[in-house]
Amino acid sequence: MKEVLLLCNAGMSSSMIAKKITELLQKKGEDINVTSTTAMANESLFDEKHYDLLLISPQVRMLFNDIKKIADQNNSNIAQVTFDAYAPTPIALEKLSKIILENI
């Protein structure tokens, strides 16, 4: 199973999106699990687990370069989530699934 971590500011909106996108991807037959956390935990992201992909939410896009260094050190891909892909709506989730599948 591929592991994806969605990083956002407080973790509230991202937890709902992570659940919904995991359901959508698994419905499509993809073996991908998406979880979420706050970007403020970026120094300890890989302490307990390896992630195949880090997704940076629009709220913390200014941290992309800092988190990219951590991702590179841990052989993980990283991608920016666009504003139009960051919502628990069917259209946004389809856009987010495309971002994940193109970057994992």
From TrEMBL:
Q: Which Pfam families match?
A: PTS_IIB
Give a yes or no for keyword Phosphoprotein in this entry.
Answer: yes
Q: Which NCBIfam families match?
A: PRK09590.1
The residue ranges of the PTS EIIB type-3 domain are 1-104
Please tell me whether the keyword Kinase is annotated for this protein: yes
**Location of Phosphocysteine modifications:** C8
InterPro entries cross-referenced by the UniProt entry: PTS_EIIB-like_sf (IPR036095), PTS_EIIB_2/3 (IPR003501), PTS_EIIB_3 (IPR013012), PTS_sugar-specific_EIIB (IPR051819)
Protein name in UniProt: PTS EIIB type-3 domain-containing protein
Gene Ontology biological-process entries:
phosphoenolpyruvate-dependent sugar phosphotransferase system
Q: Which GO terms describe its molecular function?
A: kinase activity; protein-N(PI)-phosphohistidine-sugar phosphotransferase activity
Keywords assigned: Kinase, Phosphoprotein, Phosphotransferase system, Sugar transport, Transferase, Transport
